[in-house]
Amino acid sequence: MTFKEEIERRRTFAVISHPDAGKTTLTEKLLLFGGAIHVAGAVKSNKIKKTATSDWMEIEKQRGISVATSVMGFEYRDYKINILDTPGHQDFAEDTFRTLTAVDSVIVVVDVAKGVETQTRKLMEVCRMRKTPVMIFVNKMDREGKDPFDILDELEEELQIAVRPLSWPIDQGERFKGVYNLYQESLDLYQPGKQVITKSVQLNLASSDLETHIGDKLSQKLRDDVELITEVYEPFKQESYLAGELAPVFFGSALNNFGVKELLDCFVEIAPSPRPVQTEERTVNPLEDEFSGFVFKIHANMDPNHRSCIAFVKVCSGKFERNVNYKHVRFNRLMKFSSPTAFMAQKKEILDEAFAGDIVGLPDNGNFKIGDTLTSGEMLHFKGLPSFSPEMFKYIENADPMKSKQLQRGIEQLMDEGVAQLFVNQFNGRKIIGTVGQLQFEVIQYRLLHEYGAQCRWEPINLYKACWIESDDVAQLADFKKRKFQYMAHDKEGRDVFLAESSYILMMAQQDFKNIRFHFNSEF
Ligand code: G4P
Questions:
Q1: What is the CB neighbour count within 10 angstroms for residue 212?
Q2: Residue 360 in 3-state DSSP?
Q3: Are 360 and 313 in contact (CB under 8 A)?
Q4: Does the beta carbon of 136 sit less than 6 angstroms from any atom of ligand 1?
Q5: pTM of the model
Q6: Neighbours of 227 (CB within 10 A)
Q7: Mutate to test the pocket of ligand 1, among 15, 16, 25, 256 (most ligand atoms within 8 A of CB)
Q8: Whole-angstrom distance, CA of residue 182 vs CA of residue 177
Q9: Which residue lies with its CA nearest to atom 19 of ligand 1?
Q10: pLDDT per residue over 80-113, tens digit each?
Q11: I need a surface site. Which of 46, 199, 351, 489 has the fewest CB within 10 A?
Q12: Distance CA 284, CA 451 (A)
């Protein structure tokens, strides 16, 4: 196989959804098709969300186990598939956002009864920002749910993306008969509990054979529905999908393994191979000979006896090889790796080479930060690893004065790992930790103690949002900072951050200081 073919056969994506829509079930079925696992129930990582939130230690343990399923690579037909897992628990949403920077496309799972839910909406915002191609799987058709046309309207409105059904359900709930596959013009019939498509027949809708399979009434309805679809929705265009403007929609039932193979077959054909990636210096094309990649996730080992981390690197161009010197751009230093790991389904194994699109795990002892770049020698800095405005804030204080150095180091490293965000108040010098969920505070406190021997204490702070500010109007910016001096902070890169106490105060600030731009993620 040529170098070009190796890269073009890669499909690196994530399955995203609101908890309980069926992400784990779908992922598992995809793995079954790839022969990557042989029994259902093998993918456990996302069951995390079902643990009571207070039992976060258990969650961390499971997260440890889930390293193995963080990336699931397998072969399907002539394609190399890499599924990137995203944490099911919404307190780890920031992890998910970052994982989305390493995928070339996503599959969104929506529950037919619940429609679009909060977490899906948030994750889609990130996809839109990055123009990630999106495919939608409307799940649980074996249950009663919303009308499929209403679901399409809702998807379009709530996710702000044009949609085009590529399969169409024939009834639902107990009366669910199957789907008509508009992409392949076949009728796929469903039988409850069978875990397979009972019958798939190549069939033109005009044919009277339709009646023999699903009866007069449903045949008529299907023809009417499809006519309406053709009238209302533009024909499917792959370019629009690849541009992130149009989402093809499939209907099925992950639990019953219905509609999953059709989704996968269409996916491998139309989903993008590794896409060009933007760096501060230039656009990097995956087919370039020289290797480049970036760290999008760092996974700490919770076992105190083996305190190393794994840095997950997305290969953006060329080929990564074991024991070859690469430049760690931030350190401007060469490093080589003797035991990089590949993730093939549930196994971790040492890899000798990896191509653009693949994910490599590098054992790390604090050399890497989220966003770090590795290259064959060129000084490149990858863009697009945004931090989002956190939603919860606490002052972090030292509870053991003898250990202030350890605390300092611990905080720095945990922030580099992307566990939470640190802001230093410019007025009183106090450190504020911002997170997206309550769990992170507990995780930080525990890890500071067990990994760094430092003790911290949390103190409340009343904040609504932290936002990055900038302006070309130097005088106005100076005036703003002077007036709000008690509420100004620096992030860990030293950038200006405004700490708004309430939505009203933020709104007033935006109104009064028209020349200042308030950003809700760090990438502007
Ligand atoms: P998540 O990862 O998105 O959070 O969802 P997950 O796959 O864990 O699925 C959530 C629940 O929905 C599970 O039930 C799962 O069996 C069920 N489910 C998934 N797909 C379908 C489907 O097509 N039809 C129906 N009827 N149910 C579906 P659970 O009872 O919470 O878990 P479990 O005990 O079955 O594992």
A1: 10
A2: strand
A3: yes
A4: no
A5: 0.85
A6: 11
A7: 25
A8: 16
A9: 22
A10: 999 998 876 666 677 788 889 999 999 999 999 9
A11: 199
A12: 38
Judge contact between 490 and 415, C-beta under 8 A.
no
Q: Give the H or E element holding residue 299.
A: strand 292-300
Contact indicator for 324, 377 with CB cutoff of 8 Å: no
Domains in the chain (CATH in brackets) are: 6-174+234-270 (3.40.50.300), 277-375 (3.40.50.300), 392-519 (3.30.70.3280)
Tokens 């639902």 correspond to what residue? 172
Q: And the tokens for 332?
A: 């401007």
The enclosing H or E element of 19 equals none
Token duo for residue 23: 């992400």
Q: How far is CA 422 from CA 99, 104, 118, 390, 522, in A?
A: 21, 30, 26, 10, 13
Does any ligand 1 atom lie closer than 6 A to the CB of residue 143?
A: yes
Distance (Å, whole) CA 359 – CA 10 = 11
pLDDT digits (tens, 9 = 90+) for 7-52: 999 999 999 998 889 998 898 888 888 776 655 555 554 444 444 4
For the stretch 463-509, pLDDT in tens is 999 999 999 999 999 999 999 999 999 998 899 999 999 999 999 99
Torsion of CA 299, 303, 305, 308, to 10 degrees: 0
CB under 8 Å to 477, separation ≥6 — which residues?
469, 470, 471, 515, 516
Give me Rg for the CA atoms of the chain.
25
Q: Which of 156, 196, 151, 157 has the alpha carbon at shortest distance from 169?
A: 151
DSSP state of 377: S
Q: How far is the CA of 26 from the centre of ligand 1 (A)?
A: 9
